[in-house]
Amino acid sequence: MGKGGMSRGEGSKVEEENMAAWLVGLNTLKIQPFLLPSVGPHDVRVRMKAVGICGSDVHYLKTMRCADFVVKEPMVIGHECAGIIEEVGEEVKHLVVGDRVALEPGISCWRCNLCREGRYNLCPEMKFFATPPVHGSLANQVVHPADLCFKLPENVSLEEGAMCEPLSVGVHACRRAEVGPETNVLVMGAGPIGLVTMLAARAFGVPRIVIVDVDENRLSVAKQLGAHGIVQVTTNLEDVGSEVEQIQKAMGSNIDVTFDCAGFNKTMSTALAATRCGGKVCLVGMGHGVMTVPLTPAAAREVDVVGVFRYKNTWPLCLEFLTSGKIDVKPLITHRFGFSQKEVEDAFETSARGSNAIKVMFNL
């Protein structure tokens, strides 16, 4: 079940009973005991202090699946997290009890060709928090490899540490698209991932960013966070042509890179049409598992399509951006909850409703 822990009867208890938020059925979360494995020589035991809710967590709650991953048995939810070290394995030298850390949630095999090439995010044996059948981190404590726990600088809070996970998606996307000071960027979608991608692009030196969404409130937030232009669109495919004109006008120059942080037929069609000849479209969101989009016209204009899946080697750069002040993720945290049964249920409903909620955070 991965390092995180196991269900009752598979391991030995630590001194106090460890509790976690279990997804036990459709729209059903229960706080129940969560037994931890012993701490191995290269592991640490971490008391969770901040855990964010991701869109994938909500998908699992509402449908018991996310893309091709299906929940077939009870599973602890959550993967955006930070906490305090309570126990270290005998071979761990870079962390001590009391250190505040952000956790990278995926454990790769380090043996396959992809891992050996450095693209460990694509490892077929990846064990990722709250991706079936691996348990997540919305718990009092978890056990995790020490190499995937990153010490937080003094001026970075535990909540900001937990935000390194969604921010990593944006940082990895910017690396994949090779954005920089000469790249004008369009972001499709002003949800949490769209906003962190925008913040990452700014930190990479992008001179102009336009962001697009159907929701006026989220566009207002994007503007406050530094978007140079915002465009409100519809969900109608028939509007793509006119909206592309609006988007290009808002940019005021060529669109070099577009990040589709929604992943729908319409957003991808818009991205392909709006991006300049020879530009790039980076597919970050996965709203539709299968899309029908106008690839032939895009190919005739040599618009490259780049895929993004999770991230690799991003935590050190995320922490540098947070420490230096180049990125401020605090305004994204709009709602906070404790760790009672009622608060867990309320937090997930708040996140699922969307509206004015961007990032919902648990303080344990």
TrEMBL record:
MF term (GO), any: oxidoreductase activity, acting on the CH-OH group of donors, NAD or NADP as acceptor
Q: Which cofactor does it need?
A: Zn(2+)
- Which InterPro entries would you find in this protein's record? ADH-like_C, ADH-like_N, ADH_Zn_CS, ER, GroES-like_sf, NAD(P)-bd_dom_sf, SDH-like
> What keyword terms does UniProt attach to this protein?
Metal-binding, NAD, Oxidoreductase, Zinc
Q: Which residues form the Enoyl reductase (ER) domain?
A: 25-362
Family designation? Belongs to the zinc-containing alcohol dehydrogenase family.
Concerning PANTHER family, the annotation shows:
SORBITOL DEHYDROGENASE (PTHR43161:SF9)
Protein name, per record: Enoyl reductase (ER) domain-containing protein
